[in-house]
Design goal:
Elements: E1 2-5, H1 18-27, E2 32-35, H2 44-53, E3 57-66, E4 69-76, H3 79-95, E5 109-113, E6 126-130, H4 141-144, E7 150-152, E8 155-156, H5 161-175, H6 197-203, H7 208-220, H8 240-259, H9 264-279, H10 283-298, E9 303-306, H11 313-317, E10 347-351, H12 355-366, E11 371-379, H13 382-392, H14 397-405, H15 415-427, E12 431-443, E13 454-455, E14 463-464, H16 468-473, E15 479-484, H17 485-501, H18 517-525, H19 537-545, H20 551-560, H21 563-567, H22 570-579, H23 589-595, H24 605-614, H25 620-630, H26 637-653, H27 658-669, H28 678-697, H29 699-709, H30 716-725, E16 729-731, E17 743-745, E18 748-750, H31 761-774, H32 780-786, H33 791-800, H34 810-821, H35 831-834, H36 852-861, E19 893-908, E20 911-919, E21 925-930, H37 932-937, E22 945-955, E23 958-968, E24 994-997, H38 1006-1009
Parallel strand pairs: 1-2, 1-8, 2-3, 5-6, 6-7, 10-15, 16-18, 19-24, 21-23
Antiparallel strand pairs: 3-4, 4-5, 9-10, 11-12, 12-15, 13-14, 17-18, 19-20, 19-22, 20-21, 22-23
Helix pairs in contact: 5-13, 8-9, 8-10, 13-14, 13-15, 17-28, 17-29, 18-28, 20-28, 23-24, 24-25, 26-27, 28-29, 29-30, 33-34
């Protein structure tokens, strides 16, 4: 009888979580019900599963509405019916248009109109929905005559009075109004609840025809879904046989190219993988991925194949990845095996500039009816909940900010705030809006609208209405098409090297950028600023602690830096064992046999599986549950508890002691959700090495590429500093030399016009296009004659020195610009007058402090270019100890002067602490630790230079200064202002710092994680 039920997937309308909706129906003896969320099919597949488990017949449909106004409810008779409704909804989503008041002529859909929107004529499949409250209207002859087309339309939107209020809050949030402004048309009827089935039927006892019609619809709606059928595109070629033949040909051809003709190990591995791929009918997926990659290569794009796919030698031979699984002992079963029910996906990265081009190719090649992005449900989050709910209650912005920013225990205790907290807590985990998955796309065999309606976000690529987990449940294997700035660094650097030095670097040839002597020396010293994944202070410190000078150690470092590994104490233990291989014992023989490469420490996801299998004796299915739980996929407390129980039971059967088994499981648990698979770490390490190779041998071009791609760990200023340390000469933007982005000529780097934060981007683009079309600017007069620009824009360019090629000083140029523009407004400039020879003026020579340029640069760029920050200090003191000598001062107190680069905030039980990264006057980096007691007296006071006092701690070759005192050092007064002007000290406050936040606890000390270094009783 319930043909119009809403779950919380009716965004900002429904209040009932899906499983609770079905649970309530079961408790009310409901034997059939329809999920008809508003303009979406997001929850239909989970609904089917929940209903089947509760022995309730699921009906699937859509409640079609324009805004809040109900037009009609559609119920699918079969799978064709859901496709018809999806296509209607998709059309209007794409057109951003209103749905029609009357439904189109559906062939496989029952349509139910509410009483206030009934057309004059009804098709055979169309009915009139009536609620119990509306039954008195049937005394009207007009309605009584149409009773043979009526059905029960009891809507369900909420469960309790409290949820009804929550529903009204959601409506107010959706309409962006305070609750008191809601009208009855904005929210559901108070009768839109579920009641016991017998009570509902009793209300219609006098109208058996209505009940009969309702039962007829229920009996004829038979939408069924087989969750065991694969729905993604089945074949790349015409059929399965042609697919495996092509894959086999490509695999052997690639194997010869990668390994030569006589590598027996590679041959056996290829044969083994091809057999599994064929049995699992996964050839098409491999070939589609190969096709995408081949198109990328043909366009000259660079890609990185990573993730568990790098365990496959076939992927390596097809150029999907650049990771040799034989070299790193990666086993294919981690990616694909016959026991695995859900095949994984490839993760492939492109430059952020080229990703959309790749996506466009995929959509065109495989058809826009068959390709879409996975969706994702964006839930109400802590900050947004209190802000949104508080707004409904009419709280002012100041109070909303306090509610959003402060922990709940620090909120005011008044009645309104208590109401905000009450309803805010109810909204936790509720979906707020649908969005696009960052990278996952699906390519289907049948049109995607057979399964879901599509939405069109501003990005321009359609998205399905369900998330990646549902996609997997209903038979889709997604393709992860990602983007990252690191590839942009590498790709742009290679192009700049060709342009600047006419050298071709085949960076895809990993043999030139892996275990190269000079690169390894950079790696060992942590000289990795700008390099993908290995440039952060924490990573550079780890590299130095490990004396990391080869690829395999870097692979391990890429994994142990992850929060789960580090938090478990395994990072520290790995560092100890790596530096002291003679000072520990493997505490069980299995660890020596399986984890000898990592000193008996579980570093990778594969290591956890190895121990679970080889020590615990768990079956493969349990190992897969454990692995998927660690990676955040399909996490289930019940499944994990079962695996845990099986683990200890199996260990006992194998004769292992309980303390040993408990210690091993403790280590396994600590990995949950964070550790990398080894192939993933290896992929990262390859890309890191590629970056490092370019930084080592072509540092100026590489740092220019990093500057242009933004998105690194540090701000632009740091990369400019690194370029200067590499021998580059840095030039401010110039109208004749600079483009929008930074460019390089020999060893000269000209900053791009985009770094001038006050210059409009369209003005910068016009300056460049005009210069490219008509040649360099000859003078300031020539520039003004050719570029439509106001005095403000001219002043920005003059102050940054963009006209220095004229030989005139900034002061002279400012006077000249005003003389030229004195009678003109930019929008009404008569350019013909400027074509006349400009009168030569005798310009005064004005004295100018050499530091004025530096303050101009800080104002326009946020950092000085012509001098270093140290040159602007009032003091000439540069510290007693320099960064390069810190390792010689272990346990000694040092006094240093340094420029703040970044700091990381780490909350602890004893108060906040920070880790700082600095450069000294010689330009060398070093790191500091600041604990709560020191910070209370000597806090950070923003960007700039500080005098530091602290004790040096050298931890495995890496020095850190634990700060006891520090003071920010003043710059000289800004010489551009008079001695009495307060603005003399304002500009220096623009000096920036990078501040990041972590919510992790500090890494445990050795006595806290207590990792055994001796053999334990078996």
């Amino acid at each position: 009888m319930y043909l119009n039920c809403h779950s919380f997937h009716s965004l900002r309308y429904g209040t009932i979580p899906l499983h609770e909706l079905v649970k309530q129906a079961g408790s009310y003896n409901v034997t059939a019900m329809a999920l008809t969320d508003i303009n979406t099919v997001t929850g239909i597949y989970d609904f089917i599963k929940e209903c089947n488990a509760s022995q309730i017949k699921p009906l699937i449909g859509i409640d079609f509405r324009n805004n809040c106004r109900q037009l009609y409810v559609g119920l699918a008779k079969n799978s064709d019916g859901i496709g018809e409704m999806n296509r209607l909804l998709t059309k209007h989503n794409f057109e951003n248009s209103q749905l029609p008041d009357c439904a189109p002529r559906f062939q496989n859909v029952f349509v139910i109109y509410p009483l206030d929107n009934v057309p004059d004529e009804l098709q055979e499949n169309e009915f009139i929905g009536i609620t119990a409250d509306q039954l008195p209207k049937l005394y009207s002859p007009a309605w009584k005559s149409r009773m043979d087309k009526m059905v029960v339309l009891q809507s369900v939107t909420y469960r309790t009075k409290c949820e009804f209020n929550l529903h009204k809050i959601l409506r107010a949030i959706d309409l962006n109004i305070i609750g008191s402004k809601l009208t009855k048309a904005d929210y559901c009827k108070i009768s839109d609840v579920m009641i016991p089935l017998e009570d509902l039927t009793a209300k219609f006892d006098s109208y058996p025809i209505i009940i009969k019609n309702t039962i007829k619809i229920i009996s004829e709606c038979n939408f069924q879904y087989d969750f065991n059928i694969k729905r993604n595109k089945k074949h790349y070629k015409a059929n399965k046989q042609e697919d495996i033949e092509l894959l086999t040909t490509l695999a052997y051809k690639g194997m010869i190219r990668r390994y030569g003709n006589s590598n027996e190990e590679a041959l056996k591995r290829v044969e083994k993988e091809l057999k599994v791929i064929d049995e699992l009918e996964f050839s098409g997926y491999f070939l589609i991925t190969w096709d995408i990659v081949q198109h990328s290569i043909s366009q000259g794009f660079m890609h990185i194949g990573r993730g568990s796919g790098a365990n496959s030698i076939i992927a390596y031979c097809l150029d999907i990845t650049d990771i040799c699984p034989l070299e790193l002992d990666l086993y294919f079963e981690r990616f694909l095996n016959l026991n695995r029910k859900t095949p994984p996906d490839f993760d492939i990265d492109w430059s952020w500039r080229e990703r959309d081009t790749i996506l466009d190719y995929i959509f065109k090649k495989y058809g826009r009816d068959h390709v879409a992005f996975c969706g994702t449900n964006v839930e109400f989050k802590y900050r947004s909940i209190f802000r949104e709910v508080g707004k409904v209650f009419g709280l002012p912005k100041e109070e909303l900010d306090q509610l959003a920013k402060k922990p709940i225990e620090q909120h005011h205790k008044n009645e309104v705030v208590r109401m905000v907290q009450k309803f805010g807590k109810m909204l936790e985990k509720y979906p707020n809006q649908r969005s696009m998955h960052s990278c996952g796309i699906i390519i289907s065999e049948d049109p995607i609208t057979n399964f879901t309606a599509l939405e069109m976000p501003p990005k321009g690529f359609p998205i399905v209405q369900f998330d990646m987990h549902t996609a997997e449940d209903i038979g889709f294997d997604k393709f992860d098409i990602l983007s990252q700035r690191g590839i942009g660094h590498i790709d742009d650097a290679v192009k700049l090297i060709k342009k600047n030095q006419n050298i071709d670097v085949n960076i895809r040839d990993t043999s030139i950028s892996k275990d190269e002597i000079k690169c390894n020396e950079f790696l060992r010293k942590g000289n990795t600023i700008g390099c993908f994944y290995i440039e952060s202070p924490a990573m550079r410190g780890l590299l130095r602690r490990l004396n990391c000078d080869n690829y395999k150690v870097l692979v391990a470092a890429s994994s142990i830096i992850r929060p789960g590994v580090a938090q478990s104490g395994m990072m520290k233990e790995y560092i100890f064992r790596h530096n002291h291989p003679d000072r520990f014992e493997y505490f069980h023989d299995v660890f020596k046999e399986q984890l000898g490469e990592t000193y008996g420490i579980m570093v990778y996801q594969e290591d956890v599986i190895k121990i679970a299998l080889h020590y615990g004796g768990l079956p493969a299915a349990d190992g897969d549950i454990l692995r998927r739980a660690m990676s955040g996929k399909g996490r289930s407390k019940e499944a994990l508890q079962k695996v845990k129980d099986n683990f200890f039971s199996s260990c006992a059967q194998k004769g292992h002691s309980l303390p040993l088994s408990q210690e091993i499981y403790r280590q396994i648990e600590s990995f949950a959700g964070y550790s990398f698979c080894k192939a993933h770490s290896a992929s990262y390490a390859v890309e890191s090495y590629q970056s490092l190779y370019l930084k080592t041998y072509f540092p100026i071009e590489f740092m220019t590429a990093v500057i242009n791609n933004f998105g690194g760990f540090y701000r632009t200023e740091v990369y400019i500093h690194e370029a200067r340390m590499s021998g580059a000469k840095i030039h401010n933007p110039c109208v004749n030399k600079s483009d929008e982005q930074t460019n390089v000529f020999g060893r000269n780097i000209y900053l791009g016009l985009q770094h001038l934060k006050s210059l409009e981007s369209k003005t910068a683009a016009f300056i460049i296009s005009e210069r490219n079309e008509n040649g360099p600017y000859q003078s300031l007069e020539d520039f003004i004659n050719r570029i439509t620009i106001g005095i403000e824009g001219i002043q920005i360019l003059i102050f940054i020195g963009a006209f220095r090629f004229t030989g005139k000083t900034k002061n002279q140029l400012l006077i000249l610009a005003r003389l030229i523009l004195i009678n003109f407004k930019p929008e009404n400039r008569n350019l013909m007058l400027l074509s006349e020879p400009v009168k030569e003026y005798e310009l005064p020579v004005l004295d100018r402090s050499p530091f004025e340029d530096a303050f101009d640069e800080i104002e326009l760029l946020d950092f000085p270019v012509s001098v270093t920050p140290f040159n602007l200090l009032q003091t000439t003191f540069r510290g007693d100890v320099m960064a390069k000598d810190l390792t010689q001062h272990h346990k000694k107190t040092v006094r240093m002067l340094a420029y703040l680069i970044s700091r990381k905030h780490v909350p602890t039980k004893r108060g906040d602490m920070y880790f700082g990264t600095w450069i000294d006057a010689e330009g060398q980096f070093f790191d500091t630790a600041h604990f709560a007691d020191s910070l209370s007296k000597y806090p950070f006071l923003g960007g700039g230079c500080y005098l530091l006092l602290g004790q040096v701690e050298v931890d495995y070759h890496f020095p850190t200064v634990t700060i006891s005192k520090m003071a920010k050092m003043p710059f000289i007064p800004d010489p551009r202002y008079a001695a009495t002007d307060e603005k003399r000290f304002h500009t220096q406050q623009q000096i920036r710092e990078d501040v990041s936040m972590t919510h992790r606890d500090p890494y445990p000390q050795e006595h806290e994680y207590n990792m055994p270094r001796h053999k334990m009783s078996p």
